[in-house]
Amino acid sequence: MQPLSVVIITLNEAERIERCIQSVQGLSDDIVVVDSGSTDNTVSLAEKAGARVVHQAWLGFGAQKKFATAQARHNWVLALDADEWLSDDLRQAISNELQNPVADALEMPRRNLFLGRWLKHGEGYPNYSLRLYNRN
Question: 57: which of 40, 50, 64, 99 is 20 to 30 A away, CA to CA?
Fold first, then answer.
């Protein structure tokens, strides 16, 4: 399998960061949290969960993601938001894809939670988002 880095940008995500990190453990040996000044327990929880934390003042969404990608140790990168996590099926699909990649970037269907309910159709699902890519 191609080695994979996971990058996560955060600001005060203590309620969500552990679930996010736990969902990628075993899939990656390089989990990077780029924190932009959390005042809650985000940083300590991320470190306790096994992530490497890098501090970076907020650069804007795109620039912060780009900075996070530059911190990755591996060329294959999975970029997640702290409120996202991988299902077992998606973990397996990513693992399978990285055995013999056929593309340099992959979009994934993302399910959104709206007003306490998971969207299952319409504009909210599937909400394809490019999250797995070879940074080269």
Answer: 50
